[in-house]
Write the structure tokens for this entry.
Amino acid sequence: MGRTYRGAMLRWVIAGALMAPLGVMASGSWVVSAPSVRVAMAERETHSAPMQFSDGSAVSRGARIHSVSWQYRLPPGTQVRAWLCQENDCITLNQARGSSLALAGRSATRPMHFRFALPQGQKKMVEVRELQLIVNYH
């Protein structure tokens, strides 16, 4: 092998190693919980605490949501209207546990939160517990 060939190969290997992170994002997920919230009105939504990845996780700034999964617990026999939001973009949650691709493509590093309201006509306060969010990203 000549010196020119080895030098050219070395440059290609170095260039490929430097460019690989730009074209290939690592996939992963983060999981976070939020404190319970008390939902007391049908006309006014109650927001959970903001939920986002911990500073110690390895989510890159360019990471994008692939899917989200959620769960929360209601007292037996109660109902709430529920949404999962990132900024002002929200998806309706028809169940206390589920997953969705509706937020795919949005930033995986921006905070999210739950919103809850009582169904119309319901007057009794409901405590929503064990709020959990899983964000799968790439």
